């Protein structure tokens, strides 16, 4: 389905067998530089990937992601007041250490930054990723986002200038400046209601991070620490998952039109969780009788012949 009226015209599509959706966009070179910059951030410090994944998963569990009013950015900015940031790629972007072959301009915007993380100074911050996650929530729980300009280029939150001084950038309830295309607010479609919910959820998460459920292991076998934080907002009791975090994967029953063999789907999801995201996965006791043919049950959990798999991580 073509969407010619989008800011960047795209063709959206869906894969019938898996239900996965995607889109195709041509001649959007700025997006390529954004992707390369995120790769640089991830290569700079091993805590970046788990922090980004955790924030996106938390936002989905709180139903902040995918709402009609848009999604607040989960990893656009850390704590600008920190004395020792974990990334040396901002404040401002490290154009000065870019080599001649790394200098680039796209549409008049400067997209120069080093491609090799080794060119950047390592961080002196030794905090755990869980501690940094807690500080993220504490910081954003106190901000008046309506009066700020979040600038990854500067690495901090700035008082929002008057509209005539924004250089074409369209402010909104949440104003997050693209690190390269400075006239683009990447959160322009986020509504005031969603921003209010985002701050409220950050406040609740910060309170949980200060409590015993986050700081010490549960004696009753309940989810604790980061796993307790990442439970969906409508499952405060953790869904009786005995200290594990369950990822539900909707699948069409095998045998029908467009059905997906659960064994193959589970193996694919398990590969992504283990090899790409670095998660530890455990088999779940599904009550399936020994000798069940492969493909009739999820390798990492889920009921035989059911419509979804569950992965305990």
From TrEMBL:
Highest classification ranks of the organism? Eukaryota, Metazoa, Chordata, Craniata, Vertebrata
Q: Which UniProt keywords apply?
A: Magnesium, Metal-binding, Transferase
User: What cofactor does its activity depend on?
Assistant: Mg(2+); Mn(2+)
Q: Which residues form the PAP-associated domain?
A: 130-184
As recorded in Swiss-Prot or TrEMBL, the protein's gene is named Tut1
| Protein source organism | Nesospiza acunhae
GO molecular function per UniProt: metal ion binding; poly(A) RNA polymerase activity
Where does the record place Gly residues bias?
Answer: 300-313
Q: What is this protein called?
A: STPAP polymerase
Renumbered to this chain, region (Disordered) spans 284-313
* Keyword check for Magnesium: yes
